[in-house]
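Structure first, sequence second, as always.
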């Protein structure tokens, strides 16, 4: 058996094609994995922001309840103030003032919390931009 090198363009090209094909398959697999990981990151970020929004919504709910109590006690204060000259009305106004302070504090905290909520998953957007740039120029 003699060892004759393959003619140029025959077996050597097939071996090259196979390795290029394998490389392309590996790149495709890596891109799929990267895409899945980016989707998981986006989901995690959305869950995190939803939790923040939920807390802020709870504070808005508390402010709404406190506002309801303000109206209730203010109405009670007006009724008692008119019917009992001063005693019962002043007591109801004090309770109303306390509920007004509670409502103001809850509203302000809810508003502050809501301002920290981000509407889009920023880390994912940034890494997707990096991935896009890498895909355009993979050697940089």
């Amino acid at each position: 058996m003699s060892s004759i090198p393959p003619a140029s363009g025959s077996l050597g090209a097939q071996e090259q094609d196979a390795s290029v094909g394998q490389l392309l398959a590996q790149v495709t697999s890596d891109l799929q994995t990267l895409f899945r990981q980016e989707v998981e990151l986006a989901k995690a970020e959305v869950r995190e922001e939803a939790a923040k929004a939920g807390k802020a919504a709870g504070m808005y709910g508390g402010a709404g309840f406190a506002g309801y109590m303000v109206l209730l006690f203010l109405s009670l204060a007006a009724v008692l103030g008119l019917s009992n000259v001063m005693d019962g009305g002043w007591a109801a106004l004090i309770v109303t003032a306390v509920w007004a302070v509670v409502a103001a504090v809850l509203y302000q905290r809810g508003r502050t919390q809501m301002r920290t909520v981000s509407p889009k998953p920023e880390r994912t957007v940034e890494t997707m931009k990096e991935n896009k740039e890498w895909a355009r120029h993979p050697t940089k």
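Margin note: The two ends are 48 Å apart (CA to CA).
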